[in-house]
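$ run holo --ligand "manganese (III) ion" --emit tokens
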Amino acid sequence: MAFTLPDLDYDYNALSRSIDAQTMEIHHSKHHAAYTNNLNAAIENSELAEKSIEEILAGVSSLSPAVRNNGGGYYNHNLFWKILSPDGGGTPVGKIAEALNANFGSFENFKAEFTKAAATRFGSGWAWLVKKDDQLIVSSTPNQDNPVMDIAEVQGTPILALDVWEHAYYLRYQNRRPDYIAAFWDVVNWKEVESGL
Ligand code: MN3
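-- output --
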């Protein structure tokens, strides 16, 4: 069973208050498609082809760089598209708000910690909100690594993700990663994030 590039739940221009349509189109139809195709090529005719992406990533320490990089790229973007929405943004309410308050003191504290993780990740990588047992933790990873991988510093289930590769923001924001991070909050789908709790 080959992995397939998921369709987005919204149009490429739907998030344009934060992310422009051309960036969305290239990011999904070229970058994410390439990770998907390269992952399939890397696991073809091996026992990995029978596993879920989570199972593959959980054992990635003993697998090839091609599986690590493309499997991570496949998984990470699947989550990223899901936690974005044209109806997103604002201040979270309900269970997710309670969980953020319990773990970080306040939504503003959480936002500051996540923003810092995204801004200070050197080079290409991701910022995460990770569910680990009953705790929520902010972390970041280089390249296409993620918290599902057995090589990650903070391991668990990511419920919020931010891609800070330059391909995610350079057309509109150029070198201004902090502006891209600030705009990201306006399109976060908190209902989807909450579903990961
Ligand atoms: Mn990307």
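-- notes --
The first strand starts at residue 125 and ends at 132.
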